[in-house]
Specification:
This protein has about 375 residues and is mainly α. About 65% of the residues lie in helices and about 0% in strands. It is built from 17 helices and 2 strands. The chain has a two-stranded antiparallel sheet.
């Protein structure tokens, strides 16, 4: 049985969205004694629609649920399942942490302020929350599949309702803020559960996908316009409420819309990835999904710090994101970030997959036929 290439294409789109999103909405402002992390969304709220395009985490969890459900082996003990699946996520993390321990020591020696180090460290570690939640949901896949078999699509209403009750407690009833962190599981369980449903034959019709898109978009608009949720689907420094940290009911509704759009895109994406060059790019992104995800912030920071001392304050790199000119300048830096990430990738990709998973047989089914021959298993499947 061949791969579902559409799932790989959706994962590649999600990776691209996360990378470009972080590169475009994260700014470093030179302060004279260090760098301050800022966001153009704080100074220019009209840019919020950028977050609607580039905040693609729901698509990650959708394809994660699909792949996890497809990867279940009948009769496999739960402990063996959890170890096998989470090992793929955690394998590249130690290399990142070791590199940044050394980098932090060097930055301390170079005289960077504690505030700067704290801001950089937060950006390095922030992707790890995704791994924790994704790993937890992946480990719970047997239970989620059992829930699907019992409740069907109605099961998705359970985490939606749980997220709504948590938001009600936080925002309307004056409950403690810490209860909001429970939505890391309830909120992202929604697209993950729908991915399990997709893997089990549900959501196959365009009508179902269109319903998710229309209903999710309408609910998101109502929550933003009538319930005071932010328009931005990512966190904005200084904002009272973040839709992402932790995810709110608005983020869940937005994720439903994204899920519907992703399912509607299956057929055109399927046609697109039949082209060898397109499939090669999709395959490469999937083979290195965790490497790209974990190191893309490092690439951006390496360019920012590396050019800070040598070239002074550069537009779009060290200047305050307060006007549209900053966006144009930042766009010009994206190819530089990408080049540095590619260089990091050549060194870090070896930590993502055990050597035994590489197939040296050039006659094997090629994942990237024009570049190399490897097995068609991906890092997050």
């Amino acid at each position: 049985m061949g791969r579902e290439r559409t799932v790989d294409a959706l994962r590649a789109v999600a990776i691209l969205g996360v990378v470009l999103g972080h590169w475009l909405v994260t700014a470093f402002v030179a302060t004279g004694d260090g760098l301050r992390v800022a966001s153009p969304l704080a100074a220019m709220p009209s840019l919020a629609p950028i977050s609607w395009v580039l905040q693609t985490l729901a698509v990650f969890f959708l394809v994660g649920g699909y792949a996890a459900a497809k990867g279940l082996r009948p009769g496999e003990p739960w402990g063996s399942w959890a170890r096998r699946r989470t090992a793929r996520l955690l394998r590249p993390v130690p290399a990142l942490l070791l590199v940044w321990l050394a980098a932090m020591a060097g930055l301390i020696w170079a005289g960077y302020t504690p505030d700067t180090l704290r801001g950089l460290g937060k950006l390095v570690l922030s992707p790890l929350w995704f791994l924790a939640v994704y790993g937890a949901l992946t480990a719970l896949t047997p239970a989620i599949v059992a829930m699907w078999k019992r409740l069907g699509l109605w099961g998705a209403a359970v985490p939606v309702a749980a997220t709504a009750l948590i938001d009600l407690g936080r925002f309307a009833l004056g409950g403690p803020e810490w209860i909001g962190w429970a939505t890391l599981l309830t909120g992202w369980l929604v697209p993950f559960y729908l991915g399990v449903a997709w893997a089990n034959g549900a959501l196959a019709s365009r009508r179902a996908a269109a319903g998710l898109l229309a209903g999710g978009a309408a609910a998101t608009a109502a929550l933003v316009a009538g319930a005071g949720y932010p328009a931005s689907m990512v966190g904005v420094p200084g904002a009272e409420i973040s839709n992402l940290n932790p995810p709110t009911l608005a983020a869940v509704a937005f994720g439903l819309a994204q899920t519907g759009l992703a399912l509607l895109a299956r057929e055109p994406l399927g046609r697109l990835v039949r082209r060898p060059r397109v499939w090669a790019g999709v395959a490469l992104a999937n083979l290195s999904a965790m490497t790209i995800f974990l190191w893309h912030q490092t690439a951006m920071m390496a360019v920012t710090i590396g050019l800070g001392g040598a070239a002074g304050s550069l537009p779009g790199l060290h200047t305050a994101p307060g006007e549209p000119g900053w966006v144009a300048a930042r766009l010009a830096w994206l190819p530089v970030f990408a080049a540095v990430l590619a260089a990091i990738w050549t060194l870090a990709k070896r930590f993502e997959r055990p050597r035994r998973e590489i197939d040296p047989n050039p006659k094997a089914v090629p994942y990237i036929s024009s570049v190399t021959a490897v097995r068609t298993r991906t890092t997050i499947t």
